[in-house]
């Protein structure tokens, strides 16, 4: 797992040219892994 992916449900896809492949998902095209995010919650 790459550093950029540790809080994402699915990793960001990068093609052989180093370009990020755009997702068809709405918004920014990423979904947070709620369990990973909870580890950094304060309070």
From TrEMBL:
Protein name (record): Enolase C-terminal domain-containing protein
User: Which organism's genome codes for this protein?
Assistant: Saccharopolyspora ipomoeae
